[in-house]
Amino acid sequence: MIIKKLKVDDKTFPFDPQKTLITSKVNSVGKTSLLRMLLYSLGYKIPSTKGLNFNKMYFITEININKIDYEFFRHNDNLKINNITNKSSDVFSVKAQQIEILSILYTTDSLEILKNILGTHYFDQEKGWTLLNRGLVIGKIRFNIEELLTGFNSKELADTNNHLKNLIKEKNDYLKIKPLLELNRGFDPSTVTDRDIDIDVLHDRLRSNNIEIRKTKNRISQYKQVKNDNQHFIDLIDNLAIRIKTKTGIQVIKKNDIVGFNENQELILAQISRLNRYLNQLNDIKFNLNKKINSSMSLVKLDSQLDHFKASIHNLNITPESIELIIKDYNYEINHTKEQIKKSLYNLKVTEKIFFRVKKYASILGVEDMLDNNTTFLLTDNLKRYSGAKLHLLVFAYRLALLKEIQNTTGECIPLVIDSPMAGELDEDNLSKMFQLLNTEFSNNQIIIASIFDINKITPINKIITLDKGVLK
Question: For burial by CB atoms within 10 Å, which of 58, 213, 414, 460 has the most?
Answer without folding.
Answer: 414
